User: What shape does this take?
Amino acid sequence: MSETTVARVKSERMRTLACSTFALLFLGLIYAFSMFAAPMSAAFELEKGAIGLTFNIMMIAFCIGAVVGSQVERRIGVKGAIVISAVLFFAGFAGTGLLAKGSIAVVYLCYGVLGGLGVGMGYNTIVSTTNLWFPDKVGFSSGVLMMGFGLGSLILGTLSVNLVPLFGLGTVFVGVGAAGGVVAVAAAFMLRRPPENIVALTAPEQAAGAAASRGGTDERFLLKTPILYLFWIWAVIVVAIGLATIGNCAANAQLVGLDAAFATLLVGLVSTCNGLARVVVGMIYDRTNVKVTMFVDGAVAAVACACIIGAFATGTPALFVAGALCCGFAYGGEPVVASAFARQRYGSAKYPLNLSVINTSIIYGSLLSMAAQAAAGGVDSPLAVFTILGVLSVVALVDVLPFSKKWNADLRTRDAGAAALPAKDA
Assistant: This one.
């Protein structure tokens, strides 16, 4: 393999990573909902409680969009899937800005359903395509991509909110939709799948162990593999904790005694931790393994719940700040682990579909968060909500043990399968 070819591929994959991260920065604006909620209530003359449901609708639509996007990409290619995503993203934000006044149904349909579907399709297509360029550094590439997605709400969300007094929320939403759509379309024409020999070019040691790799990836549909359900238990709980924080961060911060200005700033700081976690967790994954990474991220989620419980029990704002930042970190780490887990455990052949199915943990996490709030008496009872989630965080940590045993058993099966292959295949 010529050094020139390898250098060219490595150069192209870094350009691909940069382009993808920039596109996800815009698509990640959908996560700025906590910043937009109060302005939406005022500008569109809607109740805050009704608007709050939009976030959950959007997250469910996001997961559905990811699954649909994996099939659209398979049929019409990466470019077509991202262009459709761009159209839906524009329709979601522009439709909300132009038509939502006095109608919560429009907010649910446009921001929640259309926006969620568009971002889900774009996210899944961009992440799955870009990660295939990094068989040797899947944790790193996942982390950088997720950082861009997570920081969208901090950087562009903050900018957008600051423009509302000047131009009005409706105009800002139309601008956001147009900007995100244009960037996504540009990414559609720049992204492509890597060459089929990408593993041999960038990770020759993996190519040399191809037989073992084939044994380690499962030809069965992933829903038939027990380890997926053990992973889901952990992921759903971590997601639920993160969504309970992100969706109500500003409101809860004020309940514990922080002023409105700092509460808004805290939303951005949580997004920062969300973004930074995606790089840090990716690096941990690359340097250790999935088991260690899950335990570390789950431990951060448990600490987050403990801090928030302590904040509301004692009236200590500093504890809430620490807990919210830890929640942002834990939530940011989960999709990195999910992305890397999908690639490492199930291989590249059906990666877009497998990633989208694994990420349906967001739906279940959203439902679990809503269930915890309902059991606690609503979002106005954050102490009870996070007490329930705190108990569940312990369950997530304990779940890493059976997951680890199953993971080790799968590795042994892989090694045994590789050893049984004829010498010419091994």
Remarks:
- The mean pLDDT is 86.
- The chain has 17 helices and no strands.
- Residues 48-99 form the longest helix (52 residues).
